[in-house]
Design goal:
This protein is mostly helical and about 240 residues long. About 70% of the residues lie in helices and about 0% in strands.
Length: about 240
């Protein structure tokens, strides 16, 4: 125990008088009025939130994970796609193909939105361009290596079709981040926004990150439940 901690336990009243506490962790002492919000203001000023291409891109970003989660959970409950296609593997391949097309359209809609709106002089620099290129290389490595580690069915929700992996993948890139496919994709979009010096690209990338974060919180526990159910079945057998 440190000396400060010892004093806190020996004489709490004295410490309370010396150092008043607040529930915001000291944030009350921060003067937010002195923060430089010039960059944020510039970003928002150059972004046209009412532009049709921006709205289409946002809709595509939100729709994609919503679609594949709803369809995959429906399949897990009813096995309707497996029955329709006569095989869970064929059903998974078809859903995966649809997801790929949706992601291609999302990327296209984001590119259209970035081209339709103004560039930002602050970002239109060589070092920012190379930073964006580096992010795209990193993102591509994460996405491709994740796909190679999981395979097609592991990548495209095969768990929901009853196509379960023998054990959890813990090698690269999963030893770096738990959801490399999602964060690699986000890095690609951020890199594309930096290369294009696009403020709307930054906004759209932020939306991608938020939507993916929500999808992870939605998908993670359900996937764990699927494997727990398999473990329980094996114990009964």
């Amino acid at each position: 125990m440190s000396d400060a901690a010892a004093l806190r336990y020996q004489n709490p009243d004295k410490e309370k008088r010396a150092v008043p506490l607040d529930c915001c962790g000291g944030l009350n002492n921060v003067d937010f009025s002195k923060m430089d919000l010039t960059l944020i203001e510039g970003l928002l000023k150059l972004t046209n939130f009412q532009d049709s291409s921006f709205c289409v891109a946002v809709a595509a970003i939100i729709f994609n994970p919503f679609f594949w989660n709803v369809v995959a959970r429906w399949e897990h409950r009813t096995h309707s796609l497996s029955k329709l296609f006569g095989s869970p593997y064929l059903a998974c391949y078809c859903l995966g193909f649809v997801i790929i097309l949706l992601n291609v359209y999302r990327s296209h809609s984001m590119t259209v939105a970035m081209k339709a709106q103004a560039k930002w002089e602050v970002m239109d620099r060589t070092d920012v361009f190379y930073a964006g290129a580096g992010l795209m290389v990193l993102g591509t490595v994460l996405v491709v290596s994740s796909f190679l580690a999981l395979g097609f069915t592991g990548t495209f929700l095969g768990d929901y079709f009853g196509i379960l992996m023998d054990e959890k993948v813990t090698g690269f890139p999963f030893n770096i981040t738990e959801n490399p496919m999602y964060w690699g994709s986000t890095a690609n979009y951020l890199g594309l926004a930096l290369i294009g010096a696009s403020p709307v690209g930054l906004v759209l990338t932020a939306i991608v990150a938020v939507v993916y974060k929500m999808a992870i919180r939605f998908e993670g526990p359900f996937t764990e439940l699927i494997y727990q159910e398999r473990s329980q079945r094996r114990k009964r057998e």
